[in-house]
């Protein structure tokens, strides 16, 4: 998730993510980050100006990673239905494989700790924008109802988020069959023709 960073930055970001998920943001002090990461406070300040700077870098790193993960293997030549299914399969796989990053984004996307510029960059450049283009393409081709594409993506994401939360809290086992049913339900909610045709 933090492969773009050097070892010191990786240690700080990974430790901060664990502390925030386990103890909440306010409890993740610079001294605790230093202690748990094995990086001196002075060395942390060499790369990050403040705890807020660490949290914002963490946010941007996770958003970028999530965007790459969700949109991997989406090929323009594939059908809209194929890309739709793959994108949402990837969202579910992301939430299952990287639960800490998933929880962090869900908890802190609207936090005052996250700079408005960071939120704007994430909103415009994250995977939602690319998937919204796919929805727009589906509308142009007459496959989807005429609704704002970003709104539809957010509507579907909200549904998937609650399913993933239920899975993470062991309220339900999210099997492959249930994943497929959830994705089909998303498709049916905006498609002019119900069900998969391929």
Automatic annotation (TrEMBL):
Domain of life of the organism encoding this protein: Bacteria
HTH tetR-type domain sequence ranges: 6-66
Lineage, broadest ranks: Bacteria, Bacillati, Bacillota, Bacilli, Bacillales
UniProt-recorded name of the protein: TetR family transcriptional regulator
Record organism: Paenibacillus glycinis
Pfam families associated with the record: TetR_HI_0893_C, TetR_N
Annotated region of DNA binding: 29-48
Keywords: DNA-binding
SUPFAM superfamilies: Homeodomain-like
């Amino acid at each position: 998730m933090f492969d773009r960073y050097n070892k010191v930055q990786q240690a700080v970001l990974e430790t901060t993510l664990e502390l925030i998920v386990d103890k909440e943001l306010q409890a993740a002090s610079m001294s605790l980050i230093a202690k748990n990461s094995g990086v001196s406070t002075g060395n942390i300040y060499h790369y990050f100006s403040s705890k807020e700077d660490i949290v914002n870098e963490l946010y941007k790193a996770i958003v970028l990673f999530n965007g790459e993960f969700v949109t991997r293997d989406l090929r323009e030549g594939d059908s809209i239905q194929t890309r739709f299914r793959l994108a949402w399969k990837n969202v579910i796989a992301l939430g299952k494989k990287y639960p800490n990053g998933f929880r962090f984004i869900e908890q802190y996307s609207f936090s005052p700790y996250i700079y408005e510029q960071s939120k704007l960059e994430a909103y415009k450049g994250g995977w939602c924008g690319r998937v919204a283009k796919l929805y727009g393409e589906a509308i142009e081709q007459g496959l989807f109802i005429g609704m704002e594409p970003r709104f539809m993506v957010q509507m579907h994401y909200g549904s998937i988020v609650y399913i993933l939360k239920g899975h993470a809290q062991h309220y339900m086992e999210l099997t492959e069959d249930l994943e497929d049913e959830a994705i089909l339900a998303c498709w049916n909610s905006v498609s002019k023709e119900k069900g998969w045709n391929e």
